[in-house]
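#structure-requests
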Amino acid sequence: MPSWPAPSTRAIAVASLALFAVIATLAAFVGGFDAPGLEPAAWRFVTCTSGSLALGLLGLATFGGIALRGGLSDEVARRFGGKARLNKAHMVIAVFGVVLTLVHVTSACAVAELGIGWLQLFVPFTRVGGPLAQGLGVFAEYLLLAVLITSALRRRLPWKWWQRVHMLAVPLFGLAVAHTVLAESWATPMFTPAAMSASALLLTVPVLHWRARRSLPRPVAAAPTPAQRASTRQLSLLISQMTWEAEGIMSLRLVAPNGVALPPWSPGAHIEVALPSGRVRNYSLYGDPRDRYCYRIAVLRQDAGQGGSQEMHELLRVGRKLPVGLPRNAFPLRPAPSYLFLAGGIGITAMLPMARAIAGRGIPWRLIYSGRSRQRMALIDAVLDVDRDRVRILPEDERGRPDLATLIKVQLPGTAVYCCGPPSMVERVTELVGDRPDLSLHVERFSPALVDGEPFHVDLRRSGCSVKVGGQQSVLDAVRHVVPKVAGGCEQGICGRCKATVISGVPDHRDSLLSAEEREGGQMLLCVSRARSERLTLDL
């Protein structure tokens, strides 16, 4: 499927209003006319053809919009190029439907025998012949205008108004079908199959919507711990927009229900999101810190994960409220004479605000953004908009993996290296920067550090028991077998909910949160860190 460009809904609405104004002016001055050089029969053919095509496209757009909104499975979407492309195709089809609708209305005004002037164009039931068909067509026009205007203003309107008005596309399609059935073109044999197909398609819309909602898995509610309630319910934010940014990546725009400003944040910050199941997940804020009225996060679906990303993709919808923690920054942007930003996959969400903050300051910097393929790399356009000369996009299927060794080798002394991506990338960059003591390294992971190594034992001082931690097992999982109530959260070494005190032994820190002082003070995160010694004793 081709990669359709995303049209501007505001431009669509403005153009549509302008064309309607032109049509009204023509109808007012002419009141129905035979265009010179074109026979009335030809105008009637244009009217019927454009109307039938417009009906089919608007029906397809309505059908596709409800399918996307109702939870189209990733496997089905993948067959058509992914949800991001389907969403763009949905918009393009709707645009062509609107254009053909305008052609239909304009050409109908040009057929004198139809008797359509400015009055019949905007006032229902004023046509002498076929007043019901004309009235339904006028009502469909107004619904189409409402859908276009709210689409253009969706970022400014309250979500409830946008959602409810935009869903008028369903009755709009119904009125258009009824108008087609009752209009004179229904008597033309060549247009009968098109109208019948449109009628059948209308019947499938509510069936599709009902089946899509029934197919969604229902969340299994789990009572959050007191620590979760204390930290994740400080804000209750509304999902005002959901966008498919790339294959398997969905972005959310979160706003306050009452429209007030949100707490400030700085590049590198993240928020904790409490899901309906009780899970807690952390996501970097990738928007503009100057925009105090929304938070933006992006979610990569990981079917092999622990279910948090699947729940975000399958259960969350526009209009739902989410408990969200206040922004926290364990990955701050520190002053430096120059910067190298290394982003792998969804790690670009942490790097993008940093690049925006540095751009324009006259400080040397570069951003390297790698991923498996362009189709699976989100926010490429936003990254390039920062500074195309300082940004390199490296899809592995086109250019291979980035040469990290060379990138680190050529950096000037004092350069701050920021890296956010998969564990293998972070581990490699950590190793390379370790050979350059004149560089500073700052890393953050979006998935747990590699769980590997030799088994070891953990003694729990207060519980009076000991557990064995396997080579492919986290300390948190092992401890939970004997202390089920031990706190957990992101399980990525970011939130700090599983922090514990080490009484004896040498921990192997693999988190992205604890400071050097906290580590020296005996703190450890159980979800990702391991042990360098044969035994650890924890204050649990």
